[in-house]
Specification:
The structure is a single chain. The protein has 281 residues and is mainly beta. It is built from one helix and 20 strands. It has two domains: 2-121, no CATH class; 128-275, no CATH class. Helices cover 4% and strands 44% of the residues.
Length: 281
């Protein structure tokens, strides 16, 4: 068990391992007891504070203990965040990672939360963690390369057109949601750019999927994503250049009163042979 005291004072919040020697006229002291959930007969189901039971809850990856604070802090205490103490209760919460060994479990999140009187406090959820859970549930793959392909025939000095097939898993948009503690976060992912490492030492950044080549384009260069090789791949390993396409997925998320953006990257590699133009005399 982890034990200590919560000190509510006009200057802020402090923590101590033993009861502090304070003047009751300056601050309120609320003892609390937090179960770590390992070898605890209450299994994190509650602690004692001012004679009131605290409740157990969970966050994304964390286990939390809630302790009701009695008597209530003064109305001007910042943790009320504008709520009316006459209609609300104040709880102290302390969270830890239950997946860690007992000797390594540490308090990773704590604070105060005000809830309507008579209601249980909801687990303190980090919307960004939920956003990452939503992203993890998606199937975000590397670029589905349409050109260049290993079976293609490419020539020095001839413009190469590069483009990718578009799907929810290889280009987006791809949308998923994750929920916890009454909070739902929705994330939408889409590829914002693809960086092509051409294998000859050059790099090409394309901000879109590229333009498919048609015979009618002749020897023109791609208007959106292309490359012209100046040497053959004869000296490369296996006689081919490794062409690596790295996509950057930009993920916009919102929920729980917050919004933000995450990024993920994925890769696809093709082995491409570049030959010389054969002139028939």
């Amino acid at each position: 068990m982890l034990s200590g005291a919560v000190v509510l004072a006009t200057a802020g919040v402090s923590h101590a391992d033993a009861d502090p020697d304070v003047d009751a006229g300056e601050c309120q002291v609320v003892k609390f007891c937090v179960g770590v959930g390992v070898g605890d007969e209450t299994n994190g189901s509650g602690g004692q504070a001012g004679g009131a039971q605290g409740g157990g809850g969970g966050t994304a990856g964390l286990k939390c203990e809630y302790t009701k604070i009695e008597p209530k802090p003064p109305a001007d205490y910042p943790a009320w965040k504008g709520q009316d103490p006459k209609k609300s209760d104040m709880y102290f919460y302390s969270c830890w990672d239950p997946t860690k060994p007992a000797g390594e479990q540490q308090q990773e999140l704590d604070g105060f939360v005000a809830v309507p009187a008579g209601q249980d406090p909801a687990p303190q959820v980090d919307p960004q963690e939920l956003a990452q859970q939503a992203v993890d549930s998606m199937t975000l793959l590397g670029p589905d390369v349409a050109s260049p392909k290993a079976a293609g025939k490419y020539t020095v000095g001839v413009p190469m057109w590069m483009w990718v097939n578009q799907s929810a898993t290889s280009y987006g948009p791809n949308t998923a949601s994750a929920s916890a503690g009454g909070v739902t976060v929705t994330a939408t992912a889409k590829v914002s750019k693809i960086v092509w490492q051409m294998g000859d030492g050059s790099s090409v950044t394309c901000n879109g999927p590229g333009t498919p080549y048609r015979a009618s384009h002749g020897m023109a260069q791609s208007p959106t994503c292309g490359h012209v090789y100046s040497k053959t791949s004869a000296g490369a390993t296996s006689g081919k250049f490794p062409v690596t396409a790295t996509s950057t997925w930009t993920i916009d998320w919102q929920g729980g009163g917050e919004a933000g953006q995450l990024t993920e990257t994925r890769q696809t590699t093709e082995q491409v042979a570049i030959g010389e133009l054969q002139v028939v005399r």
